[in-house]
Amino acid sequence: MQTAFDPLAPEQLRQWAERWRDELLSNVLPWWQRQIFDAEGRVLGGRSNDGRVLEAPRSAVLGTRLLWTFASAEQRLALPPRPQLDWAWAWVSQGLTDPEHGGVFWHVDAQGQPLAAHKQVYAQAFAIYALCAAHAARPDPERRALQQALEFFELLQAHAFDQADGGCWEGFTRDWLPLPGARLSDKEPPAPKTMNTMLHVLEALTELLRHHRVPAVEARLRELLVLFIERIWLPGPRCFGLFFSHDWRVLTPQVSWGHDIETAWLLVRAADVLGDATLLARSRDLAVQVADAVLARGVAPDGSVHGEGRFDGRITDDQRHWWCQAEAVVGFWDAWQISGDPRHANAAWRAWRYIDRHHVDRVGGDWFKTLDVQGRVVAAVPKAGLWECPYHHVRSGLEMIERLAPR
C-alpha cells in the first residue's frame, strides 16, 4: 500500500479495507481460535509472546471479550459458525456467571471456581456487551443470550447506579453489597466512580438498546451520555477525567489519550442508537474536539498514541499499547467522517501504519500488545492475559472494514 494517503481516493480505501480484512481473517482470529482454549474448550489463563501457556486466573475481562470477538466477527464478516463461539458462550454463561447471586465473577480458576468473587461493574458491562453480540450472531427462539444480558442489566439497575448524583459505582461484594475501594487494578487510585467503568456501561447499554428497546435501558443510556458531555469531559484541560468522587470532583490530573479517542466515537454511536438528534449533534461536536485535543498532545511524531499523561501535557507513560493505537484508528476516522478535516483522516492512517509496522506479529500471529518508545516489544506484557485480548483490534478492524466500504 502507498504511504501517501488520500481519504477521498476510492482505490486506497478499498486496499485499506482489504488489508484489515486479511489481518483479521489470516492473522488475528486464527491465533485466538487456536491458542486461547484448552482441550475441553475452557479459556486458558494466557500466553506469552513466545507462545507459552501462562498459569494465571481466568479474568472476566478476557472471557467476555472473547465471546464478543468471536460473535462479532462471525456476524459482521458473515463467517461460517465455528465452535470457539460456543466455547466462549459456555465459558461466560457457566464458568464466569455466579449461579447463586447473578453477575460474573472477577476472576475464576480453570474449572470456573471463583478466585475473586466480587462483582466489578466493569465486568458486568462487558458481559452484557458480549451477550448482545452472541444474540446478533446466533439468534434463537428463546433469545437466551439476550435474556441473560437483560438479567445482568436488571442487576445493574438494582445496585450499580447512584440515584442521587448519577453514574455508576465501581464494585460490590459477591452478594451485591457495596464494596468501598473496589478498583480495576492496583495501578488505579481508589475512586467511587471512574470514567472507564462508565464508558463500558454506556457501550454495553448502546448494544442492549439496539436489540431490545425498553424505557429503562434508554433512560440509563441517556443519563450516561449527558454525564459524559457535561461532567466527565473537562473543557479546561480538554480531556475526559478518569477518577471522580461521588459528587463529580475530579480526583487526579491524569489523562488517558487512548480512552479519550475511544470515548469520542462511542459517544457518537450511543447517541445514534438512542435516536436523540440533540445529543447526537452534541456528541459529534465533542468527538471532533476530542480528536483535536488528542492529536495536539497525545500523538507522537511517528503517528502512534502515547499511553498516559497529565493535564499539563506531561507524558507519564510513553509505552505504545495496542489498544490505544486500535482505538485511534477508529476515533480519528470517525472525526474525519464528521468534520471532513484531512488532519483527522491522516491521523487514523498514521496510527494504522504504526500498527502495521510494529504491533502486527507476522511470525507468531496476532499483535504484540505493548512496545517501548523505540517500538521494541515489552516482553513482560503477554500476548493473551488478564487484560490482553482481541477486543480492541478486532473491533477496530470490523469498524474500519465497514466504514471504508463505498457509500
Automatic annotation (TrEMBL):
Q: Which residues cross the membrane?
A: none
- What keywords does the record list, in alphabetical order? Isomerase
Annotated family: Belongs to the N-acylglucosamine 2-epimerase family.
Official protein name in the record: AGE family epimerase/isomerase
Which residues, if any, are the signal sequence? none
Q: Which domain of life is it from?
A: Bacteria
Tell me the InterPro entries matching this sequence.
Answer: 6-hairpin_glycosidase_sf, 6hp_glycosidase-like_sf, AGE/CE
Q: Which Pfam families match?
A: GlcNAc_2-epim
